[in-house]
């Protein structure tokens, strides 16, 4: 198997609407651990998100697009509260199965909604910062263009999309490291498929176009940062 070319044809098990609901539920709950270990959001919060929130000098409203099981938005809410920042958070995901898991993580200042980027844009919603994690590699080329455009339209400030960076090292490391967390979930199969579907920084930059600064945030991560239109 070669990782030199992005495999956009691979379908992840959790993207099948008819997949086993118990496994999906377990996968969404365990994304918490996987995101803490692999997503690099601690560093992204300190380096990109926190400065954007501090720069506002007023209460902020942040949107997590494709919030899945809601673990990231819950973690970021905790980090921002610890830093004394006044932030309300919205986690939005069109998949109601995700929202069941997210709502079990409900906390003050966080709202979870069953909706998507296009619907929020049509409703004229705006936020101070828009983020996403592990959404870009799921999307087709047309979906990616629409999602990126919607995210810019929804933000008055920064837009920060974080995703996996495709590499042999990421594939090999994840295959070993996920083993203790994988039983009863889709984490192993879908994580490895995600790595094969994910972008190199140069590929993501080409797919998103000139409004975005795409960087290799670590050997395993890409970050696309834009400035919103709202
Ligand atoms: C792999 S999950 C990532 C979940 C979560 N962000 C995480 O890191 O664990 C990708 C999510 O993106 C959501 N999604 C796909 N297209 C979307 C759109 N246009 N607007 C909002 N969410 C979307 C899917 O429903 C899915 O829950």
Automatic annotation (TrEMBL):
Key word Magnesium present: no
Coiled coil, from the record: none
Domain Methyltransferase: 62-148
Protein name: Methyltransferase domain-containing protein
Keywords: Methyltransferase, S-adenosyl-L-methionine, Transferase
Any one biological process term the GO annotation gives: methylation
PANTHER family assigned: METHYLTRANSFERASE (PTHR43464), UBIQUINONE BIOSYNTHESIS O-METHYLTRANSFERASE, MITOCHONDRIAL (PTHR43464:SF19)
Matching InterPro entries: Methyltransf_25, SAM-dependent_MTases_sf
Native species: Microbacterium insulae
UniProt GO MF annotations: methyltransferase activity
């Amino acid at each position: 198997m070669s990782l030199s070319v992005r495999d956009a044809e691979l379908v992840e098990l959790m993207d099948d609407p008819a997949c086993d609901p118990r496994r999906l539920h377990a996968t969404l709950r365990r994304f918490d651990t996987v995101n803490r270990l692999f997503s690099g959001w601690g560093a992204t919060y300190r380096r990109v998100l926190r400065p954007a929130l501090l720069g506002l000098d007023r209460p902020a409203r942040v949107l997590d697009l494709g919030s899945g099981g809601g673990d990231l938005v819950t973690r970021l809410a905790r980090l921002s509260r610890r830093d004394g920042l006044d932030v309300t958070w919205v986690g939005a995901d069109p998949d109601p199965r995700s929202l069941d898991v997210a709502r079990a993580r409900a906390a003050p200042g966080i709202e979870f909604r069953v909706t998507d980027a296009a619907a929020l844009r049509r409703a004229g919603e705006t936020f101070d910062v828009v983020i996403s994690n592990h959404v870009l590699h799921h999307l087709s080329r047309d979906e990616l263009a629409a999602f990126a455009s919607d995210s810019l339209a929804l933000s008055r400030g920064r837009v920060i999309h974080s995703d996996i960076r495709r590499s042999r090292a990421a594939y090999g490391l994840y295959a070993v490291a996920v083993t203790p967390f994988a039983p009863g979930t889709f984490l192993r199969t879908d994580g490895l498929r995600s790595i094969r579907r994910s972008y190199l920084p140069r590929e993501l930059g080409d797919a998103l176009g000139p409004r975005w600064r795409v960087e290799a945030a670590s050997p395993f991560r890409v970050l696309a940062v834009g400035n919103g239109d709202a």
